[in-house]
Amino acid sequence: TFRAQCGLKKALPSRRRKAQQRALLGPDGGDGGSAGSPRALPAVCDPSRLPHRLLVLALMCFLGFGSCFCYDNPAALQTQVQGDMKVNTARFMALYAWYSWPNVVLCFFGGFLIDRVFGIRLGTVIFSIFVCVGQVIFALGALLNAFWLMEVGRFIFGIGGESLAVAQNTYAVSWFKGKELNLVFGLQLSMARIGSTVNMNIMGWIYSRVQDLLKHTGHTTLGLALLIGGITCLFSLACALILAYLDKRAEKLLCKEQGKTGEVIKLTDVKNFSLSLWLIFVICVCYYAAVFPFIGLGKKFSFSFFCSVVYIISAPMSPIFGILVDKIGKNIIWVLCAVVTTLASHIMLAFTFWNPWIAMCLLGVAYSLLACALWPMVAFVVPEHQLGTAYGFMQSIQNLGLAVISIAAGMILDTRGYLFLEVFFSACVSLSLVAVVMLYFVNHLTGKSGGF
């Protein structure tokens, strides 16, 4: 095998190595070298050169575009979903809860499946297929006027969605090294936010065009609109297939190993988690509970475009804040600023008549900042061998919290109205703020503030 050849490369005679390279790269050619030298590949076809790696980077970024686009399809079409399917807000928000339920468990096993069962290439294709199948079932549920089938579709969609993000990051680590990774991760996050932004601003238009074509509204119009939106998932699946081919080809040409997630999950490590880590978990759950369900219900608050402001700002700001936090440090101060800013934005929306642009812009900046500052803090308080377990547990309880809070938010909106719901979101952010302050003092008293 090529992997075995890599291990014995130093022991092979020079002439034999050249013969193997000619077999891989093609017949002898005229790149200006001596007779018998391998033909030079065009830069875009050579996996060791920058143009080819940029092509791979583009495919990596588009790998999650479809998943992010379709994740917030319900938010972009909230009015249409509730009207056509005749469901209240609590049932509507269950569509987000069903996405989160499988990821309460899969956060622990997604990396294992990629490393030990499927491999990065097959795993990425399988998770992309789950996303496509889930979106199709979601759309069929609307076409058949069966809301329970829409919930099944969201559950299947959730199985692929989060694990696909793990695969995306694994590809990045496999192809890019060192400081390149900061930019790569920033670009991937930006593309994800662009997908969400495009969804928020185009799905309503697609629904209107389908409605004009059919000359009536109803669940059939909704289903067709969702099927059209699912084309983005097919596009991402195509990217997964091309990326798998290019990665396999690079493994042969460069004798490189398949990417590994590096996750080592041991649930027994949970009992050894420090108080600082548990406080980080509280910050994560309480903060995101006031962001994602809020965006999911945003169509009822105002227009979809106002909600997309959060993603529009996050797209360019995430890599900028990532570089800034890396340079300055003091993560806990950045987290504190993000939480306070988010609390201020919810209070503005609840108790003032100011233009919602102000609050939504503040929320977009705060959301970007917190994502860059909070997640790296886990590495400050957890030994390296426990990082996989810590991040898996953090994502697990985040998804559990989002599932519960999404349903609760829908029930509150149905029974108490918008003002009480904003108070509820403000209370969640306030709990996050208390946890940030406690984390600061705990680490200060124990002398472990370090990079905080």
Key terms for this structure?
452 residues; mainly alpha; Growth Hormone, Chain: A; 2 domains; 22 helices; globular; disordered N terminus; Lysosomal dipeptide transporter MFSD1; transmembrane helix; transmembrane transporter activity; transport; MFSD1
What does this structure look like?
GO terms for molecular function: transmembrane transporter activity. It catalyses: L-alpha-aminoacyl-L-histidine(out) = L-alpha-aminoacyl-L-histidine(in); L-histidyl-glycine(out) = L-histidyl-glycine(in); L-lysyl-L-alanine(out) = L-lysyl-L-alanine(in); L-lysyl-L-alpha-amino acid(out) = L-lysyl-L-alpha-amino acid(in). Belongs to the major facilitator superfamily. This is Lysosomal dipeptide transporter MFSD1. The chain crosses the membrane at residues 54-76, 96-114, 126-149, 222-246, 275-295, 301-325, 332-351, 357-381, 393-413, 419-442. With 452 residues, the protein is mainly alpha-helical. The chain has 2 domains: 60-245, MFS general substrate transporter like domains (Growth Hormone, Chain: A, Up-down Bundle); 273-452, MFS general substrate transporter like domains (Growth Hormone, Chain: A, Up-down Bundle), CATH 1.20.1250. 78% of the residues lie in helices and 0% in strands. It contains 22 helices and no strands. It has helices at residues 2-7, 14-25, 50-63, 65-71, 73-76, 78-85, 89-100, 103-118, 120-143, 147-175, 180-214, 219-229, 231-254, 275-289, 292-296, 298-301, 304-328, 331-351, 356-374, 378-381, 387-415, 418-446. The chain is globular. The two termini are 47 Å apart. The model is unreliable at 1-38 (pLDDT under 50).
